[in-house]
Design a protein that fits this description.
Blueprint (H helix, E strand, L loop, with lengths): L3 E9 L6 H9 L6 E2 L3 H5 L6 E2 L12 H6 L2 H16 L10 E7 L4 H14 L8 H5 L3 H10 L4 E5 L5 H14 L5 E8 L4 H9 L29 E9 H6 L6 E3 L2 E5 L12 H14 L9 E2 L8 H13 L7 E4 L1 H4 L6 H14 L2 E3 L16 E3 L3 E3 L8 E5 L17 E3 L15 H10 L15 E4 L2 H9 L9
Parallel strand pairs: 4-5, 4-6, 10-11, 10-14
Antiparallel strand pairs: 1-7, 1-8, 2-3, 6-7, 9-15, 11-17, 12-16, 13-14
Helix pairs in contact: 4-7, 8-14, 11-12
């Protein structure tokens, strides 16, 4: 098998306008969830009045003409891809050897609904000629391809919340097949709009903590009541290790393997036994040539919905058995909200940086927020695994990220970072906590569980313990709440 490595990262998220800004804000325990100030919130009497909007608006970064000709989802994607490409050193490579694998869960929703309003209010002559190219789900991949001159392909996967992670898994396969030397992969979403908010609220999938948006997303907490809708995009540059070394590129991590499965259970609710997600994780590990004992950190889907977290934890138990209680789990959606088609890519970057800097986000509140694995899971040979499960088509993808080269970080205050010490074998291991720390974690274990949309981390890294599992399993909701 050809070794695939990560050489560039880029993101624009609710936490920051770049990948580094987003990561630093995550380690500080910040929340990107804020009250919505748009007039349409009151006009439509929306039951949810907050979301995790991108911290930096595309109009502050892109040229005016680009903003005019691209849907917000493609705008976010282009910003993230440009940052990732620059971070990779803007490789000098033949266009025919550059491929784009980019995803979205919904696509150009703002363009579609704005055009419908124009048609109703002003007639067909006022509908913009660029409406169709702007609303297509592959618009983001096309914009990136044209922006970078990528001619090996511009491919789009649409599989709900699993989209971003599945795009990375596809990129891995395309590099293994020799279709390109470099692939720009990732995902995007921009649906903070009254219709999706109303629809997700009708599904009972959104948190309704209008009085406390910053603490609304709380994966694995017993009081969790849904996810927080987010927006943004992320992109990573992948290439063969041979190609990266030949051009002197910096390597963040190795993408060790990936897998796609389906649980064929329900259009929105996960299989409560977590079988599809578990198969995805095990298949990713097998492709990576690794065992479950090699994993010392998990980046979870952890959306903060009542049903999804339980299923995800069940999947982790299937894979890791009793050992799951001793593996650190990151649930970053507590900070970013749920970016739907963009979440897998953003959380892949958080996992890459966790490996590269030997650092994992630490809980920023007394509530331990964690998650398990989802049918779209990402796993890293540098002994970190990420898990995710897609429900709509119930497609699950798993992509692997691995091997980092930096020393451990030791910030330990709340909302800070937990060190991931390097082992003698170049992997990651969790140091044994003190007695007082173990007692604190047990007290914090009465937390919420997530219901399974498409979230991978939160502002916290928590330990899934037996007591926490009991709390998760005691909280049941209708299947519609588990998207």
């Amino acid at each position: 098998m050809t070794t695939i490595v990560v050489t560039g990262i880029g993101a624009t998220s609710p936490l920051g306008g770049t990948a580094r800004e987003s990561w630093d804000a995550l380690l500080r325990g910040e929340s990107g969830s804020r009250p919505l100030e748009q007039e349409w919130v009151a006009a439509h009497e929306l039951p949810v009045t907050f979301a995790a909007q991108a911290k930096v608006r595309p109009s502050e970064v892109l040229e005016r003409q680009e903003v005019k000709r691209l849907d917000p989802s493609a705008q976010f994607a282009l910003i993230a891809a440009r940052e990732a490409w620059a971070d990779a050193g803007a490789p000098d490579i033949e266009p025919e050897r550059i491929l784009v694998d980019y995803a979205t869960g919904i696509g150009g929703l703002w363009t579609l609904l704005d055009a419908w309003d124009v048609l109703k209010e002003k007639g067909p002559r006022r509908v913009l000629p660029m409406t169709i190219p702007m609303l297509m789900p592959n618009a983001a991949a096309a914009a990136i391809s044209m922006g970078l001159g990528a001619r090996a392909g511009a491919r789009t996967v649409v599989s709900a919340c699993a989209s971003g992670t599945e795009a990375i898994a596809n990129a891995y396969e395309h590099l293994q097949q020799g279709l390109a030397d470099i692939v720009v992969a990732g995902g995007t979403e921009a649906v903070v709009h009254p219709l999706p908010i109303a629809a997700f609220a009708s599904m009972q999938a959104l948190s309704r903590r209008n009085d406390d948006p910053a603490a609304a997303s709380r994966p694995y907490d017993t009081g969790r009541d849904g996810f927080v809708l987010g927006e943004g995009a992320a992109a990573i540059v992948l290439e063969t290790k041979e190609h990266a070394l030949a051009r002197g590129a910096r390597i963040y991590a190795e993408l060790a393997g990936g897998s796609v499965t389906s649980d064929s259970y329900h259009i929105t609710a996960p299989d409560p036994e977590g079988s599809g997600a578990a198969r995805a994780v095990l298949a990713a590990l097998a492709q990576a040539g690794a065992s479950v004992d090699d994993v010392t950190h998990i980046n979870a889907h952890a959306t903060s919905t009542p049903v999804g977290d339980i299923a995800e934890f069940e999947a982790l138990k299937r894979v890791f058995g009793d050992r799951v209680g001793s593996i650190p789990v990151s649930a970053t959606k507590a900070s970013t909200g749920h970016l739907l088609g963009g979440t897998g890519a953003l959380e892949a970057i958080f996992t890459i940086l966790a490996l590269h800097e030997r650092t994992a986000p630490r809980p920023s509140t007394s509530t331990s927020r964690t998650s398990a694995s989802r049918s779209t899971s990402s796993r890293a040979r540098a002994r970190s695994a990420t898990g995710r499960s897609s429900r709509s088509r119930t497609r699950s993808a798993s992509a692997a990220t691995t091997r980092s080269s930096r020393s451990a970080r030791t910030t330990t205050e709340a909302g800070g970072a937990a060190p991931l010490p390097s082992t003698g074998r170049g992997g990651l291991e969790r140091g044994r906590p003190s007695a007082s720390e173990r007692a604190r974690r047990r007290a914090a274990s009465t937390t919420q569980d997530d219901a399974g949309h498409l979230a991978r981390a939160s502002r916290s890294v928590g330990m899934l313990r037996a007591r926490a599992a009991a709390n998760l399993l005691s909280s049941r909701r209708p299947p519609s709440a588990g998207s």
